[in-house]
Amino acid sequence: MSEKNVSYPVGIDIGTSNLVVAWVDREGKPEPVPFNYHQQYSCPVEILLDNDSHYVVGERAKDKRLDGHTTVHELKRVLGRSFDEPNDLAAIETLRQRVNYTITGDDTTDKRVLVTFARKSSRRPYDPSKQPRRYSPEELQAKVLRFYRNILSNKRPKQEPRAILTVPSNFNAAQRQATFNIGRIAGFEVLGLLNEQTALLIEDRRQNPQVYDSFLNLGSETIVAVWDLGAGTLDISIASVTNTSMGAIATDSVNFGGTDIDNYMYDLIIAKYTELKFDVTHEVEATVRRESEKYKIRCSQGYLDNLETEVKISNYPVVYIQASEFKKVCQKLTEHTEKLFADLLAVCNQSRTKRREDIRTDDIKRVVLSGGGAYLPHCRLMLQRIFGDEVLGEPLDPKTAVAAGAAYYAYNLMSGMYPYGQITDTVPLPISVVVKSAKDSAYVPWTVVKRGKPIPVEVTCDFITTVDDQAAMEFKVLQGMHGQYEKNNLIGTVVLGGLPNGPKGSVTVTMKCHVSIGSQLRVEAKVVGADDISVVKQCTIQHTGRTLTENEVESLVEAYKKESEELRKRNHLVASVHQTFMDAKYGLNVASQQYKDIVDLESEFESEEKKFTIELLEKKLQHLKSLYPPVPAKNKYKRLRKN
Questions:
Q1: Which residues lie across from 496 on neighbouring strands?
Q2: Which of 224, 341, 428, 641 is the most exposed, fewest CB within 10 Å of its CB?
Q3: Nearest-5° angle of CA 75, CA 45, CA 376?
Q4: How far apart are CA 405 and CA 425, in angstroms?
């Protein structure tokens, strides 16, 4: 990318456990952006509020959690969820039991999920004077992403990033809108959303062009499966790849991931020490948490070989995990994979035209593997049994592949070049509308957009009045797989009032439902033939009470801009203070007392730097310049020769 461009593309993968950001280099190749000097790319999505009212995010926050501090993490599991939706309550309660921070509902509606940094306690009414401030999941996740945004600003200060954010395929419209809000609050211009499986497919084709070219030379279409076991979800999709297009035919996921396996291992090991009547201290719990990944891999191999796995912790007896004990979680993973794949084949064959033959397992020419679970020996054997060994590809990097694919997609959007043709996607969950025509009438359900329908798509439906002089018509937009519409997730409500008077059936209302790439939903209703804007209503996700409203998002965006300006000013003052110290030391003898005094002052400033406000920094800089006036460049050399 040229430095003259005012913006550049980035891909953002906000996972359950980690955050990865990738951008595209000058040659058009996506590469991950490190977040520290150790060149680490995977930043933990964790945040801690320390005693100085400063936020600690990433690796430091994770270390604090393992040491016993109250750190907010795994917020993706409750993103865009509410307490009044039965489908969401199970996920909220599961996370409540596992974490040590507080998850509550909104005071007014008790719908929106809010969290505090306070430890869990009895569920008493929220008292702002006695309890800390509560945050929405979007706001806290945006703080972690903002940490990365500041890193990008330091690397490319004169350019603005334009981002594609990735989401799991089973995210509904509210969860996708919440993800979109996170990108905006963090200071990114969000180009759109992309399913994680589609990003993996893009990255796999970019890394293995010869493999796909060999498939396409044999036929006009190649069927590819994507299997991704992440920290929070298991995602599977079936995609079609041609010379002119590439995208999912059907996709689905389940809330079961590597973190669930880690938690199973943790509970299993702690239970064994409890049976031996050993006092399980916090240090032991922290050690088991840190080593859960290692035990998981060992047990996976031991399960295949029917061997027991040894667990050693210093000052504690050795315990053993039997192959039969690990079999339970392995069977659960196998059942999820087989069920998802069978359901996806059925959806694929329903959505394809009659001229095409049904897709079978033998038609899949390649299986794209990603996620930490792709490296588990048991998972590899399970996939070999389902698909065959010859179609399994080498696992993509579980940390960076999704973000790299999203960055490459953003690069294609901005440059207008599409080397793989059009990128398509499908509707992950069916969208239905229930209509209430009259005041006392019942709701009538209509399925507007079926699951598996290619997107972007716009569907139009017409409805007529059912009573004379009907004043209004109400639409409820729902999303979900349940046969009873009231058990699906409510996305939003449109009430179209001010209908013209007339006998029943004389007034027609048109409803448009538009689904964009990333499955973002927009609904609009209007009276046919009416040009007056007052009889046009739009439904947006903010009206559901499950995400931040547009005003709240704008307020947080403005707060970020103000904070960014203050941060830049503060960084400039701190750099000026350090430059003043450097100028004062320039040319002095290192052994001189004057040099040592300046070093002591600089060390004192560095230790107290965080406590300085902008006003104090300005006074500090003026004081230092009065003590050590700037030395002209020509005099620096004189001082250097003199010493």
A1: 473
A2: 641
A3: 95
A4: 14
For CA atoms 80, 83, 85, 89, the dihedral sign is: positive
Per the DSSP assignment, residues forming a β-bridge with 48 are 56
Q: What is the predicted pLDDT for the residue at 545? A: 60
Give the contacts of 341 (CB within 8 A, at least 6 positions apart). Answer: 225, 236, 386
Output phi, psi for 160, to 5 deg: -115, 135
**Are 59 and 43 spatial neighbours (Cβ–Cβ below 8 Å)?**
yes
CA angle 593, 597, 602 (to 5 degrees): 150
Cα–Cα distances in angstroms (integers) from residue 519 to residues 80, 479, 506, in the given order: 15, 11, 34
What does the alpha-carbon distance between residue 47 and residue 70 come to, in Å, rounded to a whole number? 9
User: Residue 8: beta bridge partners?
Assistant: 161
Q: Which residues pair with 472 in a beta bridge?
A: 497
CATH class of 7-185: alpha beta
DSSP letter, residue 483: S
Question: For the residues of 142-163, what is the DSSP string, one character each?
Answer: HHHHHHHHHHHHHHSTT-EEEE
Find the distance separating the first CA and the last CA of the chain, reported in whole Å.
Answer: 47
Beta-bridge mates of residue 20 = 13
- Separation CA 584–CA 627 (nearest Å): 9
pLDDT of res. 442: 59
Q: Which segments of 337-488 are extended strands (E)?
A: 364-370, 422-426, 431-436, 444-449, 454-455, 457-464, 472-479
> According to the model, what pLDDT value does residue 182 have?
93
DSSP helix/strand/coil, 66: helix
Please answer whether residues 238 and 250 qualify as being in contact, where contact means their C-beta atoms are separated by less than 8 angstroms.
yes
pLDDT value of position 30 = 93
Cα–Cα distance for residue pair 367/238, rounded to 1 Å: 9
Helix (H) or strand (E) holding 18: strand 18-24
Structure-token match 């806290």, residue found? 140
Polymer length in residues for the chain: 643
List of the chain residues with pLDDT < 50: 1-4, 51-52, 121-130, 354-355, 539-543, 633-643
Is 235 in a helix, a strand, or coil? strand
Let me know: does 494 contact 541? Beta carbons within 8 Å. no
Q: Residue 543 has what pLDDT?
A: 42
The CATH class that applies to domain 431-546 reads mainly beta
Three-state SS string over 315-370 comes to: CCCCEEECHHHHHHHHHHHHHHHHHHHHHHHHHHHHHCCCCCCCCCHHHEEEEEEE
Reduced to 3 DSSP states, what percent helix, strand and coil does the chain have, rounded to the nearest 5?
45, 25, 30
Tell me the Ramachandran region of residue 584: left when phi exceeds 0, alpha when psi lies from -120 to 50, beta otherwise: alpha
* Domain ranges within the chain, ordered by starting residue: 7-185, 431-546, 551-642
- CA dihedral sign of residues 520, 526, 528, 529: negative
DSSP state of 424: E
Q: Which two tokens stand for residue 356?
A: 């095409």
121: amino acid identity, one letter: S
φ and ψ of 454, to 5 deg: -60, 145
- Round to whole Å and give the CA distance between 45 and 635: 51
Q: How far is CA 508 from CA 460, 472, 511, 514, 539, in A?
A: 12, 12, 10, 20, 19
**pTM for the whole structure:** 0.77
- Cα–Cα distance for residue pair 199/197, rounded to 1 Å: 5
